[in-house]
Amino acid sequence: MTKPLTHKQALAAVIQALGGTWDPPRAALALRLAGYEPATSQAGEKEARRILRELTEEGTIVRPDPERTEYHPLGT
């Protein structure tokens, strides 16, 4: 039996598969599609920002401009 992906694993996989620019609203949508059901859209974006920061710290994605909340997969 396979274990379900965590929210972070699911978002990392989607970002790597689709590429492009990721901001909190797009990441929150991807999390909802992966099964995360936040109480509010604000809660969804907050969770997305937290995961995006963690993925950046791990080196999975990069934030090219510290003034903007946009992220890219590593190597793009």
Strand content: 5-15%
Give the helices and strands as they follow along the chain: HHHEE
- Integer average pLDDT: 93
Number of domains: 1
Shape, per Cα inertia axes: globular
Classification by helices and strands: mainly alpha
Percent in helix: 40-55%
Count the helices. How many?
Answer: 3
C-alpha Rg, in Å?
12 Å
Distance linking N and C termini: 35 Å
Brief write-up:
This protein has 76 residues and is mainly α. It has helices at 7-18, 24-33, 41-58, and strands at 61-62, 72-73. It has one domain.
Task: Give an overview in words.
The mean pLDDT is 93. It is globular and about 35 Å long. The chain contains 3 helices and 2 strands; from the N terminus they run αααββ. The chain is mainly α. The longest helix has 18 residues, at 41-58. It has helices at residues 7-18, 24-33, 41-58; strands at 61-62, 72-73. It starts with 6 loop residues before the first helix and ends with a strand. The protein has one domain.
Topology of this protein?
Elements: H1 7-18, H2 24-33, H3 41-58, E1 61-62, E2 72-73
Antiparallel strand pairs: 1-2
List keywords for this structure.
globular; two-stranded antiparallel sheet; 5% strand; HTH HARE-type domain-containing protein; mainly alpha; 76 residues; 3 helices
